[in-house]
């Protein structure tokens, strides 16, 4: 729903990697959903692939348009879950410039109402989830519409999963983006899963397992797991009184076992590690 909306403050809706890789200079982060759209891996980009064989990332499709298409995933939730970020007013112009660069590859600006999850109470003591006085929240969202050159449209789910499995670019494996989105959605709410994302994730896992079993591919290890393996190799070893040994990094990992997706505000654009296209 493109519009030239003028708002007193900027709220940004993230439905892809913005869920777990937030923008700079935000002071509120609220989980919830938008309606009237369908989320699909129908946008191509070369940060998770190459210019000759681009990877796949998510975009939103108007539900009324999607209903006219033949999609092998023929159902979609009424709610597209994600996260709304309130940008610090003094930083709005700076963040808009940053987002225009981050979303330059086929994405355009739109505005849509955002509905906070029922678990978010405006009486909360946590300022990070404090709600504005007027609901729903009017949010800015970047969408790759069907008329942009990177839009690929409906694809056979198995072929799409195989393409995601094979794709890798400057920002890493395409499957890491897919699995990162699946994990981030599952952590928002018991109701925030997306069948399209889950089915693709399961198909890619099956492709990876089959490739490993046939000796045609390595056992899939995510970027996070690779980093942990490196840390384990470099970590000092401690010896307990019973003679057993373990790395200090492993002890630290066990201690923080339940901590996922820590959202840290950054003080400048230079501190933002990756772009939305690089997620």
What does this entry look like structurally?
- The structure is a single chain.
- The protein is globular, with a radius of gyration of 20 Å.
- The longest helix is centred in the C-terminal third of the chain and has 19 residues, at 195-213.
- A hairpin with a 5-residue loop joins strand 10 (237-239) and strand 11.
- By secondary structure, the chain is α+β, with helices and mostly antiparallel strands.
- The chain contains 7 helices and 11 strands.
- The protein has a 5-stranded antiparallel β-sheet with strand order 1-5-2-6-7, with no helix packed on it.
Helicity level: 25-40%
Q: How many strand elements? A: 11
Mean pLDDT: 78
Category by helix and strand content: alpha+beta
Q: Largest sheet, if any?
A: 5 strands, antiparallel
Distance between the termini: 24 Å
The radius of gyration computed from the alpha-carbon positions, rounded to a whole number of angstroms, is 20 Å
Would you summarize the structure shown here?
The protein has 279 residues and is an alpha+beta fold.
Topology:
Layout: E1 11-14, E2 26-35, E3 37-45, E4 55-62, H1 63-66, E5 79-87, H2 92-102, E6 108-116, E7 137-143, H3 157-166, E8 168-169, E9 172-173, H4 174-188, H5 195-213, H6 223-234, E10 237-239, E11 245-247, H7 248-255
Antiparallel strand pairs: 1-5, 2-5, 2-6, 3-4, 6-7, 8-9, 10-11
Helix pairs in contact: 3-5, 4-5
């Amino acid at each position: 729903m493109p519009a030239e909306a003028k708002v007193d403050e900027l709220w940004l809706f993230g439905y892809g990697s913005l869920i777990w890789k937030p923008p700079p200079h935000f002071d509120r982060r609220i989980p919830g959903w938008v309606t009237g759209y369908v989320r699909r891996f129908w946008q191509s980009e070369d940060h998770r692939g190459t210019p000759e064989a681009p990877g796949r990332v998510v975009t939103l499709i108007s539900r009324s348009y999607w209903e006219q298409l033949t999609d092998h995933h023929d159902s979609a939730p009424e709610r597209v879950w994600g996260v709304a970020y309130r940008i610090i007013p003094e930083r709005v112009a700076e963040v808009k410039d940053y987002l225009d660069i981050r979303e330059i590859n086929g994405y355009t600006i739109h505005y849509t109402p955002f509905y906070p999850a029922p678990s978010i109470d405006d009486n909360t003591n946590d300022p990070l989830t404090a709600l504005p006085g007027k609901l729903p929240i009017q949010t800015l969202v970047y969408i790759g519409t069907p008329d942009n050159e990177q839009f690929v449209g409906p694809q056979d789910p198995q072929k799409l999963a195989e393409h995601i499995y094979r794709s890798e670019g400057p920002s890493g494996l395409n499957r890491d983006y897919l699995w990162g989105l699946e994990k981030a959605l599952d952590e928002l709410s018991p109701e925030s899963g997306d069948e399209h994302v889950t089915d693709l994730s399961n198909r890619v896992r099956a492709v990876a397992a089959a490739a490993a079993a046939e000796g045609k591919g390595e056992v899939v290890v995510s970027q996070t797991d690779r980093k942990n393996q490196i840390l384990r190799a470099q970590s000092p070893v401690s010896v307990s009184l019973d003679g057993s040994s373990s790395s200090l990094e492993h002890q630290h990992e066990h201690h923080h076992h339940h901590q996922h997706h820590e959202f840290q505000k950054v003080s400048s654009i230079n501190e933002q590690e990756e772009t939305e296209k690089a997620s």
